[in-house]
Backbone:
């Protein structure tokens, strides 16, 4: 479904070259829920923006359902960490969810149906007439998720969507995302810096190294399909998996500290 | 609290008017040049009954409104184009900084030369003065576009035109509103100035005529009308602003939880 091959991204600006992502190769199958986890500042957001067509990679390529990504691909929805800035404060919740559908060229009745259904799915059926800033942070992120759902994407890209909400809301939203994933069969690529979250949510966890980023390890999460915040998080297998991922990330950080700086090879053409 | 403030404001105004009545009557200033409030009020009543006064008021408002509309339209279009087209902003910045501080009244000789005492003289001055107010605000407003909002719009496949309409324009709108409010005030000043100095028909010209014919109370009455006009324009602009920006934090006056 989603193929990332040899992805490399170098930022150039004001005389500085920063190699954010060195060489990333992985695939995400159709209908899979994959979590990307890595130390902070390891280029997770850069990677996701390349996948979403918002950034052009320096080298390598991203293909989605066989087609090369060179701009935001149709059928992909993005949920940002900064929900407060990603929702438009000048539009009511309903209009926010509806706007991408208008761009898709859907008719009024179909749009209305999708908006109502998406808001219902995230538990905000009554909020359509409110402005985003009248809602709590968790509710705002639900609206952003509803906007993505209404778009009926094949692939949902989520960039640390719960990093800015409180712990209880976060647990609710994690369950919401897993529930929606199971219900709708969307392919989800979920970026997080939170190891527990990655293991709890993902069917597979891709561990990234520190910047410049490579894939450190890929790990199948063999927890049951049915998960819940109480029993899953205290299951011995959960503890094993999170410990394993934690160790890999610590190793990645140490690796970064000992790696000599300034040995970047020139980007292949 | 609101009622108390309104009462205090009314009391202050009443005191000011009473002072304006008492000071000339007590002979502290020359009554010929500073007529008491009651005589100005009388003159105002006479003016209001005069068809020529209303024609002059209409002329002034026409020049003001037309000039403001042209300036706002041009300011918005030019501002958005300069901001959206790459490198255009850098290329125009120094020119704008040079042209903007030129006082519009310095263009009066040019206006007379080009258009004589016609409406177009007023328009030239009004447009020149108001245009920069709007343009500068649009330029600032467009810079304020949130990169996350912009990326959100791009990720959902909004094209350049849709992004201007749904992201750039609403972001810039609070700035545009400020620009329009400032421009509306400046436009009135320039409209009256042009009439007063060049003699284009309107309130300004009528003030000049009243002055040269020694009709001092009438002159004051007209000045009062010009002042009220400015007040109404400001109040009107603010209420439009409040309506259009109900979503904006400066208007909603509360921070979301």
Residues:
């Amino acid at each position: 479904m989603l193929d990332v091959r040899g992805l490399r991204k170098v930022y150039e600006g004001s005389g500085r070259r920063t190699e954010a992502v060195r060489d990333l190769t992985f695939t995400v199958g159709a209908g899979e829920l994959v979590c990307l986890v890595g130390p902070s500042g390891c280029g997770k957001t850069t990677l996701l923006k390349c996948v979403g067509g918002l950034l052009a990679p320096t080298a390598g390529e991203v293909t989605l359902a066989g087609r090369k990504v060179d701009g935001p691909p149709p059928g992909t929805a993005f949920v940002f960490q900064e929900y407060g800035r990603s929702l438009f404060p000048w539009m009511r919740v309903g209009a926010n969810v509806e706007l991408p559908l208008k761009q898709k060229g859907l008719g009024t009745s179909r749009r209305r149906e999708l908006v109502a259904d998406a808001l219902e799915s995230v538990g905000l059926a009554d909020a359509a007439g409110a402005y985003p800033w009248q809602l709590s942070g968790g509710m705002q992120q639900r609206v952003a998720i509803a906007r993505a759902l209404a778009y009926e994407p094949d692939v949902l890209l989520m960039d640390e969507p719960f990093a800015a909400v409180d712990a209880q809301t976060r647990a609710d939203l994690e369950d919401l995302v897993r529930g929606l994933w199971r219900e709708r069969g969307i392919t989800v690529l979920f970026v997080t810096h939170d190891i527990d979250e990655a293991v709890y949510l993902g069917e597979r966890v891709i561990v990234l190294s520190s910047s410049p980023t490579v894939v450190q390890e890929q790990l199948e999460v063999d927890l049951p399909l049915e998960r819940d915040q109480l029993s899953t998080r205290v299951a011995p297998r959960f503890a094993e998996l999170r410990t394993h991922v934690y160790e890999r990330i610590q190793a990645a950080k140490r690796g970064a500290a000992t790696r000599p700086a300034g040995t970047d090879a020139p980007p292949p053409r | 609290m609101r009622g108390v403030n309104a009462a205090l404001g009314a009391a202050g105004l009443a005191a000011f008017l009473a002072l304006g009545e008492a000071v000339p009557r007590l002979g502290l200033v020359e009554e010929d040049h500073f007529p008491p409030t009651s005589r100005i009020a009388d003159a105002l009543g006479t003016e209001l009954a005069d068809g020529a006064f209303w024609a002059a008021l209409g002329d002034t408002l026409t020049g003001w409104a037309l000039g403001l509309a042209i300036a706002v339209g041009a300011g918005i279009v030019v501002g958005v184009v300069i901001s959206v087209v790459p490198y255009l902003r850098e290329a125009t910045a120094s020119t704008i900084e040079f042209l903007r501080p030129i006082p519009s009244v310095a263009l009066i000789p040019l206006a007379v030369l080009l258009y004589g005492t016609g409406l177009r003289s007023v328009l030239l001055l009004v447009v020149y003065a108001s245009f920069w107010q709007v343009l500068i605000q649009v330029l600032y407003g467009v810079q304020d576009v949130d990169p996350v909002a912009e990326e959100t719009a791009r990720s959902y496949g909004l094209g350049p035109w849709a992004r201007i309409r749904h992201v750039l324009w609403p972001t810039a709108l609070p700035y545009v509103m400020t620009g329009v409010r400032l421009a509306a005030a400046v436009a009135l000043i320039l409209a009256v100035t042009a009439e007063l100095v060049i003699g284009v028909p309107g309130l300004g010209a009528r003030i000049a005529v009243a002055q040269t014919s020694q009709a001092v109370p009438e002159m004051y009455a007209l000045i009062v009308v010009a002042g009220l006009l400015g007040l109404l324009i400001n109040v009107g602009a603010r209420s439009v602003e409040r309506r259009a920006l109900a979503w904006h934090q400066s208007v909603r006056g509360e921070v979301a939880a």
Summary: Chain A has two domains: 1-75+154-269, 85-152. Chain A touches chain B through 31 residues (CB under 8 Å). The first strand of chain A starts at residue 2 and ends at 13.
